[in-house]
Design brief:
By secondary structure, the protein is an alpha/beta fold. Helices cover 46% and strands 21% of the residues.
Length: 206
Amino acid sequence: MLFVISGPSGCGKSTLVQKARKQIKDLQFSVSHTTRKKRPSEKEGKDYYFVSKSEFRKKIKHDEMVEWAIVHGNMYGTARREIERRTAQEDLVLDIDVQGAHQLKDKFRKAVFIFILPPNYQQLEQRLKKRGEESVKSIQDRLRTAKKEIRSYSDFDYIVINDQLEKAVQELASIVLSVRCRIEVRQKDIGPIIRTFNVTKRDYHE
């Protein structure tokens, strides 16, 4: 199963995903590619694959990216191989921008789409400033983009309001666990159990 986590920059997507994964067994993280510079707190191959614009364009040309977008002047995207190979074997969570989420919605209709909402505009602004890793112009650009992205919340399956961190983490984890209990997801577990009862039509009438 593919879980797509999205929302405006600064809403806390990455933190929520990291904390939820500590609570949920066998939930793997899909690492995206980006052309932006690595922040001091980030690690290559863990947070992103940091590549040059020429490398990124080459991947697009060779149809290696299942989704990609230009956000604040930088390119972001997800490798097709990363999604198609891994979702066949395990649950995968993807933390991406709103543009990318919309592209995936057309290609992976069975995926679960979760939108992270900040409690309000003012707190989103404070969170971006608190990072200490963005210029004033970058923060302003991200806030302008957030005003547009926030309108997309109704395109998603679930909403998590990231006001109280631990509460938001529990909500995100609960969504993943509830999806894992869907009948269509648990068919391979249900069949063997039902067969142990040797259920027949006659049993239903007794």
